[in-house]
Design brief:
single chain, alpha+beta, Immunoglobulin-like, three-stranded antiparallel beta sheet, globular
Length: about 140
């Protein structure tokens, strides 16, 4: 066997091995897809319903996508902090991003049952990487992801 042919075969074998490794670990693909998204809070509105003694927070979030493999939805980490910056609450919210194209789109997230007070603020992020022990809390990883 000539040297160039043996290098070609070795490269082909490596490519097949890498493809098999990725196929066995779909979480790697989800992590790579999540890394191409970002989320930025644009504004929020507090809706009070005195009759039901409840409150809703509506967050307007710009979700940007850099291209590549798209996800139909992505779990966003949302934190609420008091006026001093101390975190008061944390939620993971699954957002439909199927209509987000390259560049981005505005989406709304509705949150209930938060201990919101005047002066509180919100932070939204796409967490990357997601520790393996917490992947079950992120819908895009699927069961056992």
């Amino acid at each position: 066997m000539t040297r160039p042919r043996s290098l070609l075969l070795a490269g082909l074998a490596l490519a097949v091995a890498l493809e098999a490794a990725c196929a066995q670990d779909p979480a790697r693909g989800v992590e790579a897809a999540r890394a191409r998204y970002s989320a930025t809070l644009q504004s929020f509105v507090v809706r009070d319903d005195p009759a039901a003694a409840s409150q809703q927070i509506v967050l307007d979030v710009l979700v940007e996508w850099a291209g590549g493999e798209a996800l139909p939805g992505i779990t966003l980490d949302v934190s609420m902090a008091d006026a001093t910056g101390k975190e008061k609450a944390h939620r993971r919210v699954f957002a439909d991003v199927s209509k987000v194209d390259r560049g981005g789109a505005q989406i709304s997230l509705v949150l209930d049952e938060l201990p919101y007070r005047a002066g509180d603020g919100f932070f939204v992020e796409v967490r990357v990487p997601v520790p393996a022990a917490e992947r079950s809390e992120y819908r895009e990883f699927g069961a056992g992801g």
